[in-house]
Design a protein that fits this description.
Blueprint: E1 3-8, E2 12-16, H1 22-28, E3 46-51, E4 54-56, H2 66-70, E5 73-75, E6 79-81, E7 85-88, E8 102-115, E9 118-125, E10 136-142, E11 145-150, E12 159-165, H3 171-178, E13 184-191, E14 202-208, H4 212-224, E15 233-239, H5 248-255, E16 261-267, E17 277-278, H6 281-288, E18 295-301, H7 303-315, E19 323-327
Parallel strand pairs: 1-7, 14-15, 14-18, 15-16, 16-17, 18-19
Antiparallel strand pairs: 1-2, 3-5, 3-7, 4-6, 8-9, 8-13, 9-12, 10-11, 10-13
Helix pairs in contact: 4-5
Bound molecules: FE2/S2 (inorganic) cluster (FES).
């Protein structure tokens, strides 16, 4: 069934199909509401429900607080219209346009082992899905199971590649890991605002675990476009042990093609012959980035890591507008 979604102050009216979230419906109608995570953790997509009823798909979402409920604030990424609905976005609640979000069937064409329990999955779609490097897709894995993964390759083909780790007991990661070659799923993309700003200046990329995927995509973009930022580019890649630096080779290959870029791997459990840094990515930032406020940061990894980096940067007076991040559990 189709519902009408009205967005104020734009005065735009959009037909929302039954399974659309408010965020998706708005995007299909050409209104790009702000968002970051797409699953309820960041709060970037909060809008005010002015009229109508919505289904809250994730009532206990981390980004929602009691004050939001009192003020009729909802998460556009986790709400569906169940009647005609009017929402109001605040003046800052929109993002720069990105390619239009689409949904396509995709066939699993390749699986490559990168590290223990970490694989690269290559899906083929009938038509290329346009996206900006750093953005992510929602994979519909069956039985209502949806998981977000960032593309690690570049747009322009009908292949989307993802790097995923299988977690013991993790429903989504185990379902993905159990897919056989030529299995079909639905992919919805693109989402996310953690994309490369091409202006000159010092850049610091910080990846934790499989959060390396969007960082790898942005570095590949910089390398392929021959971008020269006119300043050092530091790429910090953290994992538990050296064997978990699953995409290290691919990352180094991209870094080698970016002017003034250097690779800084860091592991928590370093063997005695490990030639690089040990500890956490936050330690690496402290020891290698003397003036963080003069840099722009791109951060992707598990929420605990992303939050630790954000907190470190806040303490170092780095303006939030210089910090772009994606947190995935
Ligand atoms: Fe909706 Fe993050 S909570 S985009």
């Amino acid at each position: 069934m189709t519902r009408q979604l009205r967005i104020e102050p734009d005065g735009v009216a959009i037909d929302a199909v039954a399974h659309d979230t408010i965020l998706q419906a708005a995007r299909r109608g050409g209104v790009v509401l702000a968002y970051e995570c797409g699953w309820g953790s960041c709060g970037a997509c909060k809008v005010t429900l002015v009229e109508g009823q919505v289904e809250l798909m994730y009532p206990g979402a981390p980004a929602v607080n009691p004050r939001d409920a009192r003020r009729n604030r909802i998460l556009a990424c986790q709400s569906r219209a169940i009647s005609d609905v009017t929402i109001a976005r605040g003046p800052g609640e929109w993002s720069a346009p990105t390619p239009r979000c689409v949904e396509q069937q995709a066939i699993l064409r390749g699986i490559a082992d990168l590290a223990p329990e970490i694989r690269q999955f290559s899906f083929e779609t009938a038509e290329p899905i346009d996206f900006r490097p750093g953005q992510y897709a929602i994979l519909h894995l069956g039985d209502g199971l949806r998981r977000c993964y960032s593309m690690c390759n570049l747009p322009g083909t009908n292949i989307l590649q993802f790097i995923a780790k299988r977690y013991e007991g993790g429903r989504g990661s185990n379902t993905l890991a159990a897919l056989a070659l030529d299995a079909g799923i639905t992919i919805e993309a693109p989402f996310g605002a953690c994309t490369l700003r091409r202006q000159p200046g010092r850049k610091v990329f910080v990846a934790g675990g499989t959060g390396v995927a969007p960082i790898l995509a942005m570095l590949r973009e910089a390398a392929d476009a021959g971008l020269d930022f006119g300043a050092p580019v530091d790429v910090i890649y953290g994992a538990r042990a050296p064997a978990d630096l699953a995409a290290g080779d691919m990352l180094e290959a991209a870094i080698a093609r970016v002017a003034q870029a250097r690779y800084l791997p860091v592991v928590e459990a370093a063997p005695s012959d490990w030639p690089h840094a040990s500890g956490f990515v936050t330690d690496a930032i402290r020891t290698t980035i003397p003036d963080p406020a003069a840099a722009e940061f791109y951060v992707a990894g598990p929420p605990v890591m992303v939050n630790a980096v954000k907190s470190l940067l806040r303490g170092a007076d780095v303006p939030i507008t210089q910090v772009h991040y994606d947190a995935f559990g």
